[in-house]
User: Fold this.
Amino acid sequence: LQSRFLPGVPQQVAAIWKGPWGLAVMVFFGAGAAVFAAFRSSLRHRRWVPWLLLGAIALLVLVINAINVGISFVARNVDNALVAYDQTGFWKVVAVYAFCLVLALPIRALQTYLIPKLGLLWRQWLSERLLERYMSNRAYYLINPNDETGGEIDNPDQRITQDTASFTGTSLEVSVGIIEALLTFFSFIIILWTISVNLAGILFAYSVIGTALVVFISRRLVVLNNAQLRLEADFRYGMVHVRDNAESIAFYRGEQQESKEVVRRLGNAIANYDRLILWTAAINVVKRSYDYFSRFLPWLVIAPIYFAKDADFGVFSQAGIAFAQVFSSLSFIVANIEQLAAFSASISRL
Assistant:
C-alpha cells in the first residue's frame, strides 16, 4: 500500500526524521513537556488547562496536515485507477480515502471545539485583569464617558466587553490559521515542486502579487472598522443614557433634544458603515477575480507535461490539490482581510 498510495513518502519522512529536523522536533516537544511538568505545580486554580489545550491544538494541526498530504496521493491514484480501468485498485484506493475521512472528521471537530474553548478562558482572564485596572485608582471616574472629544479612551465599557471578546477569539483563530498555512505551504510545496518547478514558481509569484494588491487596497478598511466600533458604541451609549436618565428627561421634557442627539449618533454610524460596505464590495471583487484566475494555472502548466507523456493522468488531481493547498496558505491574508482588519481595530482599542 505504501508503494502504491504514498510512493517514496515513507522513505522521505524517515530521512527527515533521522536528520537534524527530527532531532529538533524531538528536542522541542521534549523541552515543552519538561517545562509543563516542572511548572504544573505552580499553576494553581487550573491555570495549566489553557496550556494543555494549546498543546492539544498544535498536535491536532500537525495530524490534520499529515492527513491532507496523504489524501493528495490517494486522489492521484483514484484517477490513475479510473484511466487504467482497474476496478480492484479503484476500490482499494476508495477504501483508503474513506479511512482518511473517518480519521480526519473527529479530529477536525475536536479542533473546532478546543479553539473557542481556549479563547473563552483567555477572555475571562483578560477581562478580569482589565476590570481590576479599571476599578483601581478611580480610573472609572477619571475616564469620562460623556466626553466624546476630551480623552483618548472612548467607551471603556465596550473595550472591556466586546473588544476583549473579539480580540481573544480572533487572535486564536488567526494564530492557528497562520500555523496551519505555514505547515500546509511547506508540506505541499515539496509535492508541487516534484511535479513541476514552473508551476511552483508561477504560484508563488501570483500569490505574492495578489496579496500585495489586496493589502494595499484594504488599508482603508482598517480605519473604517475602527471608526465603526467607536460610532456604534457612541450610539449604544446614547440609548443607555436615555434609559438611565428617563425620569429627568421626562421631568424637564427633554425628549426632543435627546432624540436629536441619539439620531445624530445613529446617522454617524450609518454613514461610516455605508462607506465600509463600498470598500468591502470592492475588495471582494478583487478577491473573487484573484481566486477565479488561479483555478486555470495548474491546467495550463501541467497539460504540456501530460501531452508529452512525462506524467500520468493522476498528476492532474494531485497537482490541483497541492496547488489549491499552497495557494490557500499563501493567500491567507487575502482570504481573511476583513477579519484581520476588524482584528486590528480591536487591538488598537485595547
About this structure: Confidence is low (pLDDT under 50) at residues 1-6. The two ends are 54 Å apart (CA to CA).
